[in-house]
Amino acid sequence: MTTPTVLRPHAEDQYADELAVLAKHDDRPRPPGWRLSPWAVTTYILGDASHPGGVITPKYIGPRRIVEVAVATLATDRALLLLGVPGTAKTWLSEHLAAAVSGDSTLLVQGTAGTAEEAVRYGWNYARLLAEGPSREALTPSPVMRAMSEGRLARVEELTRMPSDVQDALITVLSEKTLPIPELNEEVQAAKGFNVIATANDRDRGVNELSSALRRRFNTVVLPVPASAEEEVEIVSRRVAQLGRSLELPETPAGLEEIRRVVTVFRELRSGVTSDGRTKVKSPSGTLSTAEAISVLTSGIALAAHFGDGVLRPSDVAAGIVGAVVQDPVSDRVVWQEYLETVVREREEWRDFYRACRDAG
Fold it and tell me: Does the pLDDT value for residue 231 go beyond 60?
């Protein structure tokens, strides 16, 4: 694996060695336009410690069948919609799927309330348009149009945040596999290998529901939250280590005890009950996702490395936890204080953590 020279390399660059190894040993049938077979794509996503070409690190930790269904969908004429609550690795999975299938994860449309239809269809270079009139040279292709022309995967992030009329610009693309350009009396037809991966969640504010016509064009795969605490601890440990290397943070052991504690706090507040099932707790307004746990611990490692003694301690993660939990300064603060006094305080082995959270609050 090459040493990254940018803050966050694209998946196809960061894991180029693994993709090359998989391609070299891949003797299974490949759909038209794919760099790897569906089996090899799944291996890239889930990892394989005993691969004959070397260790393939897991990119997603979760049920194998979910990944298989997602990959199989992309091999058909149906688009893929990754649906889940925030922090369930929808964007992460879509990027790695595009990297493995097309070798390019950069054909991306970021959905926001301000996303215009040009981001899905095409725009114009207005200087050339005024000087020369409508022409192919004056046209500015969208990532979707480029993916169609090149036979690659296009990614649409946060599909439900886009206005409904912009969402519906995808209907013709997904159903007819063409993109009309009426100004030129032409159309772009999708080359083999083209498809769309979209991500969405229905828990954030500002969500625009998909029309039934658009939903029918997608196969929906729901990404679950980690099924067990052990699975979530493994995900968090792996990503924290990866981020630490990417950010070139000073070497700081990410103590398993602190990782497990952060994961436990988030899971208990998320589910509304303690891990032993004996005490009900109130849930805050935030999602407290796995991604937020990773952020809390990465920030804690930075604190320990630059301002502490190099060992991750409760005081390094306490402020991050309080900040993640208390999104609403009124209602969430009440929830957090109640959890702190009725759950955290009663755990003898968590006394240092309790004091650190009291100080941070």
Answer: yes
